Amino acid sequence: MPEMPEVQGLVDFLAARATGLTVIKATVANIAALKTYDPPLDTLVGATVTSAARHGKFVDLTTDAGVHLVFHLAKAGWLRWYDQLPGTVIRPGKTPIALRVAFGDGSGFDLTEAGTKKSLAVYAARDPQDVPGIARLGPDPLDDTFTRDTLAELLSGRRTQIKGVLRDQSVIAGIGNAYSDEILHAARMSPYALAASVDAADIDRLHSALDRTLRDAVAAASGKPPAELKDAKRRGMAVHARRGEACPVCGDEVRSVFFADNSLEYCPTCQTGGKLLADRRLSRLLK
């Protein structure tokens, strides 16, 4: 799933490539992906892109027509950019393409989604806050106002596991499964630790790890075209999707805990005092 660093990479790329271009066509191939009807998507035709921004994991293209093209790539979505857009006809139901946007200079992009479970979402909105997912977002962890005390306040009193808190978009915007694994590994914290139980030293480490991990990942994504962002993300991971490999810090074996539709990865030596965490599918969690 694209998370904040990759989405920021896409935003930076689109800001550089699409700003100043005029939309000549916006074609929906998967009607279920379009979540709005007012304003209609064809309001974008003839509009010029003026800027690109990120809200959590949402991409926001602003136009001079007073309409924003907003999209969320969900778990299996991606953006394919073309300096010269293909002339092939999009056939609904016969393609992984959910949306195609064509610009006046011949360039454009497709939003694609792999798999059978379709969750990619596209919105045409007069204001990004009209998009429910954006309106619900918590603070952005890379904002200058997101201090150590901000994090402490967000964690205070939450009787939920720290892994889930980091992934909750209404608490902190932009972090998903992969980077929550990386942040907790860098902070040397168990993913099962209760948010309300962390002490001052834990919060210090967690805030430092969160800031450093995300900023390093954003820097690694910066300047890369969409086709290279996924590989850059994989190369930067210390534990996520590294099951069975050696932890780069201590050399212990990276372990996984499996859930219904995903997994988390961690290092027992670095994060849990050597304890192996129980598989959610088979038994109760170890605290």
From TrEMBL:
Catalysis: reaction(s): Hydrolysis of DNA containing ring-opened 7-methylguanine residues, releasing 2,6-diamino-4-hydroxy-5-(N-methyl)formamidopyrimidine
InterPro entries in alphabetical order: FPG_cat, FPG_N, H2TH_FPG, Ribosomal_uS13-like_H2TH, Znf_DNA_glyclase/AP_lyase, Znf_FPG/IleRS
Keywords recorded for this protein, A-Z: DNA damage, DNA repair, DNA-binding, Glycosidase, Hydrolase, Lyase, Metal-binding, Multifunctional enzyme, Zinc, Zinc-finger
Top-level taxonomic group: Bacteria
All copies of domain Formamidopyrimidine-DNA glycosylase catalytic, residue ranges: 2-91
Keyword Ribosomal protein: no
FPG-type domain mapped to chain residues: 238-272
Keyword NADP among record annotations: no
Cofactor: Zn(2+)
Stored PANTHER family: FORMAMIDOPYRIMIDINE-DNA GLYCOSYLASE (PTHR22993)
Family classification: Belongs to the FPG family.
Protein name: Fpg/Nei family DNA glycosylase
